[in-house]
Amino acid sequence: MTRPRILVVGAGFAGVACVRRLERRLTSREAQISLLSPFSYQLYLPLLPQVAAGVLTPQSVALSLRRSERHRTRIIPGGAVGVDAKAKVCVVRTITGEHTVEPYDHLVLAPGSVTRTFDIPGLGEHARGMKTLAEAVYIRDHVIAQLDLADASQDEAERAARLQFVVVGGGYAGTETAACLQRLTHNAIKRYPRLDPKLIKWHLVDIAPALMPELGEKLGRAALDILRRRGIEVSLGVSVASVDADNVTLTDGRVLPSRTLIWTAGVAASPLIGTLGAETHRGRLVVGADMVVPGLDGVHALGDAAAVPDLAKKEDGAICPPTAQHAQRQGRQVADNLVATLRGEQTYPYVHKDLGLVVDLGGKDGVSKPLGVELHGMPAQAVARAYHWAALRTNVAKARVMTNWLLNAVAGDDFVRTGFLASKSGTLADFEYTDAYLTPEQVRKHIASLRTTHG
Fold first, then answer.
1. Number of C-beta neighbours around residue 193 at 10 A
2. How many CB atoms neighbour CB 267 within 10 A?
3. I want to staple 49 with a disulfide (CB 3.0 to 4.6 A). Which of 176, 224, 310, 454 is the partner?
4. What is the mean pLDDT of the chain?
5. Beta partners for 230?
C-alpha cells in the first residue's frame, strides 16, 4: 500500500512545528513527510535586528533542520512557486533555478510572508528589507560601509548624507531595527575620530498615529520616549513619497539626504497564495477554524499566509495576528489534525489566547506585555531576552545566543564588514525572490508540458 504523501511548504515557525509534531506522532509506515524550503534551517526571525547590529552571529539564529533525532523528513531544497490543487501538484523552483514538480496527498501551506511594499517611486530600486538572514547581514555591512565612506570623504554634504539613516515602519520589526542599529552606529563612531558623532541621525517613520499600537498607549509611549532619548527622530503620520540614490522625500515635504532606507512597513502573505485561485482575506488564504482551505482537497494553510479565525477573541471575524506564538501552535494543531485524518479520528479547531508581546530595544531598554503585565526598561528587556532564549528550538542555538550576548556585553563589537554583496544594490526583490512566482495559468501549462514530455 502506498504511503500518503504529506508536503509541508515553508520552514518557518509554523512549518517546522508541524513537521516536528508529525515526526513524533506518525510512524514511518503511516506517511511520507517532505519539507520544502530554500534553506535547511529555521530562521528565528525576532532576533534578526540583533544580527544586523552585530550582537548575534548569523549562525546563532539559523536553527538547523537536520538536528532532529528522528530525522526522517525529506528536505527539498527549493521554494514553491505555484500549486495546482486539482492535480495535487506543487511547482518547485530549486536552488539552482530549475522548475520541478512535487506531488502530494496532503499539502500544508506555511510559506510565510514577504515585505509589503507600495507603488512609491524608487522604492523597489533603493529600499532594503529586514525579512531574511541575508538581508540582516547585508544591512550590517551597508551601515558600517557608510561610516567607512563618510570617514574617507572630503565632501561635507556626502558625509552628512551617508550618516543619515531612515527606517520606515513603526511596528516591532522597524522599531527594533532602528533601536539596534542606532546603538551600532553610536558605539562604532568611537572608532572614527575624524567623524563628528552629531552628524549621525536616525529617523523612524510610520504612517500610523502611534508607535506599536498593539502594545497599548502606555507602552507605545514608553518605547517612543526611549527612542527619542537616544536621539532617534520619530515621525508619525508620515510616510515616504519617493526615494532615489541620494534622498528620501517624505509625504510632509521634508527631503532627507540619505543613502540608507530600511523598509519594514508591514508584511504581505507569500505570493504563492495567489497561484491557488482560492478566496483570500487581505491577501491571506481564507481557512476554517481547523485550517482547512475550503474547496481544495487535502490543503491546509496556516501562519502568515492564512486568515485563521481567532476563536479566543469574542468579536466576530477576528483573525489571528501573524506572530510566532500563533504560527507554532497552529503548526502543531494542523499536525494533530492530519494524524487524526489519517487514522479516521476527529479533528479539532485552533484556539489559543495570546500570551503577550515582547520588544527588545537593545542595551538595557525594552518594552514588554507578558500575560497583560506592562513592563518597560530593564525588567522588560530581561523578560524579552528570557522569552526569546527559551523559545529557541535547540540547545545548540540557546548556547550560541547566550554566548553571543555575554561576549557582546563584555567585549563589544569589532565593526567588521564581510563584503557581502558589496557590488550589488541589495533590493527587496534580490533577497525575497518576489518575482519568481508563477501565475495559475503558468502553473497549469508547466504541469501539462511535463505530462507531455513524460508521455
1. 7
2. 18
3. 176
4. 93
5. none
Q: Please give the helix or strand (H or E) that residue 257 lies within, else none.
A: strand 255-257
Supply 418's cell numbers. 564581510
Q: What's the chain's length in residues? A: 455
Pairing outcome for strands 260-263 and 164-168: parallel
Separation CA 323–CA 432 (nearest Å): 19
- The dihedrals phi and psi of 351, each to the nearest 5 degrees, come to -140, 125
Residue 93: how many other CB atoms lie within 10 Å? 19
Alpha helices in 189-273 (DSSP H): 217-229
3-state secondary structure of 230: coil
Q: Which residue has the cell 495535487?
A: 88
Please report, to the nearest 10 degrees, the dihedral formed by the alpha carbons of residues 440, 279, 21, 59 taken in order.
60
pLDDT in tens, 153-204: 999 999 999 999 999 999 999 999 999 999 999 999 999 999 999 999 999 9
Position 455 scores a pLDDT of 53
- pTM, full prediction: 0.93
Q: How confident is the model at residue 279 (pLDDT cuts 50, 70, 90)?
A: very high
DSSP symbols for 374-434: -EESHHHHHHHHHHHHHH-SSHHHHHHHHHHHHHHHHH--------TTTTS---HHHHH-T
Nearest of 111, 342, 367, 327 to residue 224 by alpha carbon: 367
Location of C-alpha cell 495546482: 84
Pairing of strands 74-84, 62-64: unpaired
DSSP 38: S
* Helices 13-25 + 324-342 axis angle, to 10: 30
Count CA atoms within 13 Å of residue 339 on its CB side. 18
* CA 30, chain centre distance (Å): 33
The confidence score (pLDDT) of residue 72 equals 81
Confidence of residue 392 (pLDDT cuts 50, 70, 90): very high
State whether residue 266 is helix, strand or coil. coil
Q: How far apart are CA 132 and CA 115, in angstroms?
A: 10
